[in-house]
Amino acid sequence: MLDALLDEVGNRDKQFTVYRSSQPTEVEAQFAAHDVSVTQRTLPPDGPDPFLVIEEEGEFAGALGLAALDGLLEPPIVRPGERDDVSPGYRVLFDVLDETVFSAMDRGELLAVSREIEDRAYRVGTGTLHVSFQTLSTFQSQAEIYRHLARATDLDIHIYGIADWAPPDVPGISYHEYDDTHGMYWALAFDSGSDEAQACGLVAQEQDDQYDGFWTDDSDMVGNIRATLSDGSY
User: Fold this and answer.
1) What is the pLDDT of residue 148?
2) 4-51, pLDDT tens digit by residue?
3) How far apart, in whole angstroms, are the C-alpha atoms of residue 203 and residue 222?
4) Does the bond joining 76 to the residue before it have cis omega, within 30 degrees of 0?
5) Which residues contact 19 (CB under 8 A, 6 or more apart)?
6) Residue 132 above 90 pLDDT?
7) Which domains does the chain have, with CATH numbers?
8) DSSP sequence for the chain
9) Digit-coded pLDDT (tens) for 53-105
10) Could you tell me the pTM of the whole model?
């Protein structure tokens, strides 16, 4: 069940500690949409520049200066492999945020995350891409994008949604209908073909025109999303 995957991610213990002067920073607001506990500690006047310490399950995971966060946390979070100038500390940060539950993201922000997953699938060109559009009529506006994906790659594409529209027949694309009890989820899973490092996925649940959920680069979690969609156990 996708609910179970959301619960699994939400139950993980992640702790951020911000070391700063007495003046608040933007970090607290930047992480407000994630299920992450943020604690503040005050640095002495002659102390170092503000920095962030990251812990996961009570263990130290990494640290980085707050200045390194500038421009990196705008949705969707820029993946480390796409920038040459990100620090090892930021790579740790992304790994930690990779599977935290976000809340109150709007449709435009989720579309940006979805585009990254679709673009990665396009760049790899092989493997299987599973996408839940909530309703098949929602897929209508994206049909040409997916027609191009199917024609330009060797991807095996599976589209899921409530059967409220008859989608076009496109070689390489299979459609799967489900009932209206499952239309609350927006989900993608790309298994990366032969390159496990490219696996990525997204699960989002609609809540009053906004979305709670998570994205992931973990191949096992991507496999769980894919299996949940393909066996119909949403």
Assistant:
1) 96
2) 887 777 666 678 888 888 777 677 666 766 666 788 888 888 878 888
3) 10
4) yes
5) 41, 42, 43, 47, 48, 50, 51, 52, 53
6) yes
7) 2-100 (3.40.30), 103-231 (3.30.870)
8) -HHHHHHHHHTS-EEEEEEE-SS--SHHHHTTTBS-EEEEEEPPTTS---EEEEEETTEEEEEEEGGGGTTTSSSSPPPGGG-SS--HHHHHHHHHHTT--EEEE-HHHHHHHHHHHHHHHHHH--SEEEEEEEEHHHHGGGHHHHHHHHHHS--EEEEEEESSS-PPP-TTEEEEEE-GGGTTEEEEEE--TT-GGG-EEEEEEEETTEEEEEEE--HHHHHHHHHHHHHT--
9) 888 777 887 777 877 676 566 555 555 555 555 555 556 666 666 666 666 56
10) 0.70
Token pair recorded at residue 73 = 């946390």
